[in-house]
Amino acid sequence: MMTIGQRDEQAADVGPLNVSTGSTARTTAQQTETFTSDPYAVRREGTLRVQNGIYLLFGILEGLLAIRFVLPLLGANPAAGFAQFIYGVTKPFLAPFVGLFGTTRFGNSVFEVNPLVAILVYALIAWVLVKAIGLVIGDTRRGVRTTSSQIDTRVR
After folding, report:
1. What span, in angstroms and rounded, lies between the C-alpha atoms of 133 and 149?
2. pTM above the 0.85 mark?
3. Which has the closest alpha carbon to 25: 12, 14, 39?
4. What tens-digit pLDDT sequence spans the chain (156 residues)?
């Protein structure tokens, strides 16, 4: 919850001690505390965390797919451990796109369009999911709840 606090204190002596009459000095003290909060901030923060989590997961997937695109393009050895790891992790996510386009070879380099299409499709899916979550559980309301308390003490 977003909270903004403000405190204002004032004190003043009014009049000197009158020795001949035996009266005491009059003192006035005033203290004001104001706290402002947004009651909807907690829900917005929760929605934002879910949306950021979706972007993070899909961003990691898209990064792995980008690496899969670059490895054959640069002529990487597919038997190398890192290449096998990348191919193994991305294979299930690339499966719907296999055979969509052919591959082009330039010597040792292989240009595969399928990982690029997968990156675009998964980016679109992530965007749609984030927007849907914003519509379903997102709270765009903003409010201000202000609580003030004032203490006025007069000593005579």
Report:
1. 39
2. no
3. 14
4. 444 544 554 444 444 445 555 555 556 666 677 777 777 777 788 889 999 999 999 999 999 999 999 999 999 999 999 999 999 999 999 999 998 888 888 888 999 999 999 999 999 999 999 999 988 887 766 677 777 777 766 665
Side-chain-side CA neighbours of residue 30 (13 Å): 6
Say if CB 41 and CB 138 are below 8 A apart: no
What number of residues does the chain have?
A: 156
DSSP track, the chain: -EEEEEEEEEEEEES--BTTTTBPPEEEEEEEEEEEEETTHHHHHHHHHHHHHHHHHHHHHHHHHHHHHHHHHTT--TTSHHHHHHHHHHHHHHGGGTTSS-EEEETTEEEESHHHHHHHHHHHHHHHHHHHHHHHT-------EEEEEEEEEEE-
Which residues partner with 7 through β-bridges? Answer: 33
